[in-house]
Amino acid sequence: MVTNRRWTRNELLAALNMYCQLPFGRLHASNPAIIQLAHAMGRSPSALAMKLVNIASLDPKITSTGRSGLQNASSQDRQMWAEMQDDWERFAVEAERATAELGLGEESTEDQTREDSSSYVGEDRPIETTARIGQRFFRMAVLSAYNGRCCITGLSFPSLLVASHIVPWSHDRDNRVNPRNGLLLSALHDKAFDSGILTINDDMTVRVSSNILARADRFFSESISSYNGYPITLPQKFEPDRGFLRYHRENIYVGD
């Protein structure tokens, strides 16, 4: 086991990729995923866990909760964090490649982002591959941020959860993979959000369109309109960007 050596770019990419995919509460040395990646790097699980916690200190959502002891991010960490923020899609591709070079590929998961392969029909294969990698990264990052639960209902059944884009995939290429442009929703509430039937206010409460409420049936009333005015469960990291939420209210939401 090699210790006290500088982190390589590939190691940092793989570490930050893991940060994006694990809930904050699982960033500890006994986590099997951390143990596996640490061994692939030739580092101790505690060293990798510490690196992940240092990375967490760069996340405004984490530090806003008043967590102490999160002050040891290196200049390398800060640079990598900035690169990720500047180009999420490129980061997702480079991070997956770096992880694969360590002998740890991504598990095949069913993409539950709404923007499926129809969003890039006719694209060249490299572009299609990049898009699929980005979708997978986005889903995993949003799932981990919300700890695998719909932020409106608390539903935790994975196959019924969708990593929903706040600003639609087709409207903003630069933020297709940005987890701050995401909400974790049940398939039903994802569809309602996508259709503009409901939106999220700046105070992070649900708003259901009164235009729809006027003709709602019993099921709609129980499953959707009953959440009107309720606060969503905020993520542990990657809090939704209020600018994206404002865009949804002004351009997608059907109004009151």
Task: Describe the structure concisely.
This protein has 256 residues and is mostly helical. The chain is 45% helix and 6% strand.
Question: What does the model show?
Answer:
There is one protein chain. Helix 5 crosses helix 6 (88-101) and helix 6 (88-101) crosses helix 7. Residues 107-112 and 114-118 have low confidence and may be disordered. Helices cover 45% and strands 6% of the residues. It is mostly helical. The longest helix is centred in the middle third of the chain and has 21 residues, at 125-145. The chain is elongated and about 65 Å long. The chain contains 11 helices and 4 strands, in the order αααααααββαββααα.
Rg over CA atoms:
19 Å
Number of helices: 11
> Roughly how many Å apart are the termini?
61 Å
Biggest pleated sheet: 2 strands, antiparallel
Map the helices and strands:
Layout: H1 9-21, H2 32-41, H3 45-56, H4 60-63, H5 75-86, H6 88-101, H7 125-145, E1 161-165, E2 182-186, H8 187-194, E3 198-200, E4 206-208, H9 210-213, H10 218-223, H11 242-251
